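Input.
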Amino acid sequence: MAVYVWSGKTRDGGTRKGEMEAKSVEIASAQLRAQGITPGKVKEKPKDISEIFTFLQPKVTVKDLVVFTRQFSVMVDAGLPLVQCLHILGDQQENVTFKRTINGVRADVESGATFAEALAKHPKVFDSLYVNLVAAGEVGGILDTILNRLALQLEKQDKLTKQLKGAMVYPATISVVALACIVLLLVKVIPVFQKMFEDFGGSLPGPTLMVISLSEWLQVNVLYLAGGCFLAFTAFSQARKRIPSFHYQTDKLALRLPIFGNIIKKVAVARFTRTLGTMISSGVPILDGLDIVARTAGNLIIEEELQATRASITEGKTIAEPLQNSRVFPGMMVQMVAVGEETGSMEIMLTKIADFYDDEVDVAVGALTSMLEPVMMVFMGGSIGTILIAMYLPIFTIADSIN
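Output.
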């Protein structure tokens, strides 16, 4: 499917121009004739620079996906055909990447594919959870309801992610500012004091000599240090992508970190219970639901435990039994899951657990932020204050010598 730019004449002699999607020039011309337009020039639209250089293409955000899902749900509930819904949403979409994706989905649906099959061809935008829930909605005839649940699910997950990122913005900003100030002092300010001290002569205090030595070293190696940090970060990222054992060990370490590990576990519980609850209430079989939840967990240790739970269920066990020996999921959650299984209200219980741990994450993130703020301020003030005191010590000695 390509986009064609066309111009032609209407039956009353007027001239019209526009764009349309078609598989070939001949099909585009036939579509124009069917609309009562005599085609003149019909040619393929030149590629935009962002299509050539893919890294320039805007990413599809969670907000884009939530808005699309909610609008799609409303249109389906109003009785509009799928193709018409996709056509309307594709035309009004401002994100060119998402617009291209929606148009591709529409073309596949027009060719006879189901909506879920068309979505599955774009895994970078629509993950396995989205695709499987849509498939369940199509089979059960409740696509509008499923899309509403999906929108809520995406909003909750996005809220959790933003909470964690928001908790780290302040300390990260303070750290960057502190390091920038320290480097600026050592590279630009200290050499001025050093020359002044050399002109006066005499011996310098130990702290001053240490700061001057650090300044001289940093002036020579600042570029190597920056390059080394960049290479270390790149190597770490690539190792996590390419070396499964390294990825596994770093995920394991993340869960054992003080404070942060506890927050990661709470986020995992909230995401697991909400996602599984949404899938069960939408009619997805529990084994398929656990498999999807495991693959979208974001942590290999959590994925391993969920897959082990799934394997135990295939052997006839309940969900709660294998979770009792879990290193991630807390006992309270396991007990509530067991009650949900016994009473037949699993999806309701999972939603309550998710709501509870959402609040727990709120409290934990707030406590983390409150703890990090004074620590970072002390670090920044102490580092810069130490450098300034070391530089002022010789000034007092010089003043005594002048007296």
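The mean pLDDT is 82.
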